[in-house]
UniProtKB/TrEMBL annotation:
Signal peptide: none
Gene3D superfamilies, per the entry: 3.30.420.40
Family stated for the protein in its record: Belongs to the ROK (NagC/XylR) family.
UniProt-recorded name of the protein: ROK family protein
Organism in which the protein naturally occurs: Streptomyces fildesensis
PANTHER family referenced in this protein's UniProt entry, alphabetically: N-ACETYLMANNOSAMINE KINASE, ROK (REPRESSOR, ORF, KINASE) FAMILY
Coiled coil: none
Length: 327
């Protein structure tokens, strides 16, 4: 499709969330050469949100590197529908079935545009340059305000037809559990997300140390200090994550699980009980012994991953580093 493109091609990446709209020009080694950023006017109408996206793109277009851009990759908060090119982010109510791909293509010189969900974008980034590099089969997860994820199978990102494959946060792990906002019951997200870790701790009598704000980080701090209620809330979150991971590994035989997002910042308070529970849930020979590791790319994962997902979808070999095969 772009066989005549010059060496040194770039991909314009957009990372769209409820708080910020970030953009960058990304080179074939995954470096972010030029950045642009706007706050997301999440409470405004859809056209106002699109104007902020247009401003980010406009800033990128002013850079001399824009002439080397061969595609635009978008990682967006979901739900997204890559098959239709639309987005309906839960925390951006002005966008419901918003035709983002069409609008971005119009603002970006009719370049090819590839849309994917933010969990899948993070997965693409961690497989390209992060903690899943060198693995042909991986599950990557974001544990934050929500719980999202994505899959790498057979050495390739598996976004699924709509760009949402691997959305582990809405596997049900508690059959008669609390109702989830998604409409189901007992979802991983309902047990393991940051706000739900806080909710459970507060319901059981936890009080933040020193009058701090009740956040997942504050619960983690109390857990490190030995608070039994805080420890129990993280243990329950870890159990839910372990059950979801074990189900995924049983279905598709992943060898590594990469966990990022704010809740992963709890460190051993999360990873310790998670590994212990996982050993009890993932017992079949082909699912046992999964490595669980923290993500490496942090807040840049969305931009790096949007570029990586676009490169794979469009077959841009220049952006496809060699991955070592699994042992």
């Amino acid at each position: 499709m772009h066989s005549d493109r010059a060496a040194g091609s770039l991909i314009a990446a957009l990372d769209i969330g409820g708080t910020k709209i970030a953009g960058a020009l990304v080179d074939a080694s995954g470096r972010l050469l030029v950045r642009a950023l706007r706050p997301t006017p999440a409470k405004q109408d859809g056209e106002t949100v699109m104007r902020a996206v247009g401003e980010v793109l406009g800033e990128l277009r002013l850079d001399g590197g824009w002439r080397r851009v061969v595609a635009v990759g978008i990682g967006s908060a979901g739900p997204v529908d890559a098959s239709r090119g639309t987005v309906s982010p839960v925390n951006v109510p002005g966008w419901r079935d918003f035709p983002l791909v069409e609008r971005v293509a119009r603002a970006a010189d009719a370049l090819p545009v590839v849309l994917t969900g933010d969990g899948v974008a993070m997965t693409a980034a961690e497989h390209w340059l992060g903690a899943a590099r060198g693995y042909d089969n991986a599950l990557c997860m974001v544990v934050s305000t929500g719980v999202g994820g994505g899959l790498v199978l057979g050495g390739a990102l598996l976004p699924g037809p709509t760009g949402n494959a691997g959305h582990i946060g809405h596997i049900s792990v508690d059959l008669d559990g609390d109702s989830c906002p998604c409409g189901s019951r007992g979802c991983v997200e309902r047990l393991a997300s940051g706000p739900n870790i806080v909710r459970r701790a507060l319901e059981n009598g936890w009080v933040p140390a020193g009058g701090a704000e009740p956040t997942a980080a504050a619960v983690a701090q109390s857990a490190r200090a030995g608070d039994p209620v805080a420890l129990a809330s993280f243990d329950r979150a870890a159990q839910a994550l372990a059950a979801g991971i074990a189900a995924t590994a049983t279905l598709v035989e992943v060898r590594v699980v990469v966990i990022g997002g704010g809740v992963a910042g709890a460190g051993d308070v999360l990873f310790g009980p998670l590994r212990a529970h996982l050993a009890r849930y993932a017992t079949l020979s082909f699912a046992a012994g999964i490595e669980v590791v923290p993500a490496l790319l942090g807040t840049d994962a969305g931009l790096v991953g949007a570029a990586a997902a676009a490169a794979q979808a469009l077959g841009l070999a220049e952006f496809s580093p060699e991955f070592a095969l699994e042992g």
